[in-house]
Amino acid sequence: MRSILDTLISPSQNAFVPGRSIGDNVLLAQELFCGYNQRNLPPRCALKVDLRKAYDTVEWDFLKAALTLFGFPEQFIQWIAECVTTPSYSVCINGAPHGFFRGARGLRQGDPMSPFLFVLVMEVLTLILRQRIEQNGGFSYHWRCEAVQLFQLSFADDLLLFSKAEPNSIQLFKDGLMDFAELSGLQANLQKSHLILSRSAAASRDSLLAILDFQEGHLPLRYLGLPLLASRLSISDCQPILRKIEARIKGWEGVMLSFAGRVQLIKSVLSALQVCRPVNEGGLGIRDIHSLNKGLMSRHLWRIISHDSNSIWVSWIFHYRLQNFGLDDSNSEGYLGMAQVD
Predict the structure, then answer these.
(1) Could you tell me the CA-to-CA distances from 138 to 41, 110, 166, 170, 231 in Å, in that order?
(2) pLDDT tens column, 78-123
């Protein structure tokens, strides 16, 4: 199943599909949110949809229908159904399991097959929304999205929907989500789902929120563990990430580390250049962060130069950022970083 996912899943989904990267979601989402704080740009909006207990609520009949839709053989579907529908569960009370009961829906988290099945389930939502967009002439794409027909970014159950900030498009998204919920069992959690509006769409705020019943969201927005902003990333925006790193490093101060171990740690820090050398050259093989960052930036540049066909981000770049094979937009922080790689 894994080997054929890239032929079944649309480019806007990047979870668990070979050859695709979680970084594409973050890079492209950041590009689309750029300028949300400006009044002189077209009104636009994004929906960050939280699916309530996503893995646990997938209807089994819908899963089998989805596999049939994607052309899997009947025998294969029966094998999948046998794996998904037959397990029994017990409840752990005071450290001991009690009783067994059969499940009625859902995918087991931890099962290596579940992520691939869930990606196929989410692809049905993409098909529903795309069909509605094609049949409804009233949908308006988000600024800088129509050329690549981009209206969503999805990584497993992390879902972003993009459109122009106007009622017809928002109503289409709502209807599509409701159709998907009725079929699959996956429902949007209204308390945790948010509508993020650009500054130029402020006049439509109340009417759009009334259509969705979502909460209003604001930038910076946390997406896949990273902050998304309307402008340049600042040091304060990175503080939550730095605090997590510091918390892990402080673990080295614990009582489980002997005095000799602490001395060795200090020596390692003081000889950082040696530490970052490969093991076969006498170092510890710890990566130099600066060199690693340059390597990752270079990889992104190579994907653009080679026109990576598996990347929705690269496709977007070619349509909206590149002119005469150059990086033309100085407002893109991602480009400024990549352009400085030497």
Answers:
(1) 21, 42, 10, 10, 30
(2) 999 999 998 888 888 888 888 788 888 999 888 899 999 999 999 9
- Between 237 and 35, the more confident residue is 35
CA dihedral of 85, 87, 88, 94, whole degrees rounded to 10: -130
Report which of 43, 339, 24 is spatially closest to residue 199, judged by C-alpha positions: 43
Domains and CATH numbers, the chain: 2-57+112-228 (3.30.70), 236-339 (no CATH)
196 touches 48 (CB < 8 A): yes
User: pTM of this prediction?
Assistant: 0.83
Q: Which of 183, 48, 60 is nearest to 117 (CA)?
A: 60
Tokens in use for 258?
Answer: 């002997």
Integer distance in angstroms from the first to the last C-alpha of the chain?
A: 40
Long-range contacts of 2-5 (CB under 8 A, 24+ apart): 2/116, 5/116, 5/119, 5/120
Structure-block tokens of residue 138: 């009233």
- Cα 302 to Cα 318: distance, rounded to the nearest angstrom: 13
In terms of C-beta distances under 8 Å and separation of at least 24 residues, what long-range contacts does 199-207 make, across chains too?
Answer: 199/36, 199/37, 199/38, 199/39, 200/38, 200/39, 200/40, 200/41, 200/42, 200/43, 200/44, 200/165, 201/43, 201/44, 201/45, 201/165, 204/43, 204/165, 204/166, 204/167, 207/167
Alpha-carbon distance values, 324 to 7, 320, 328 (Å): 31, 12, 9
Average pLDDT, the chain: 86
Could you give the percent of the chain with pLDDT greater than 70?
Answer: 83
